[in-house]
Amino acid sequence: MTLRILCIHGYRQTGSIFREKSGAFRKIFKNSCEFVFIDAPLTIPDVGDNVQGLGWWFSREDNTFKAQENTDYLCGFDKSVSTVKEALRSQVCFGSPLLISRKGSV
Q: Name one Pfam family in it (predicted).
């Protein structure tokens, strides 16, 4: 039986970018694991560096996230939890999540 792993990308990334960046890691497990990549539901505002990415929630009112700041502002968190729940419901049996940075709290 193949182990299915839900892959949750980092801030300013997408599922496709995470898939590309994890190629060497996935190759190690190619015969025993299936990696399923999902996209965060929130679009990060363009900050002028031509990188349009996605985020799981924002910690600031300008729809950005700053890991170094303490805040009670959580815009989009519930939507992200719903996105992960839907991925878990719609796919057949996951054995493990593969998380990057702050996504572990989603």
A: FSH1
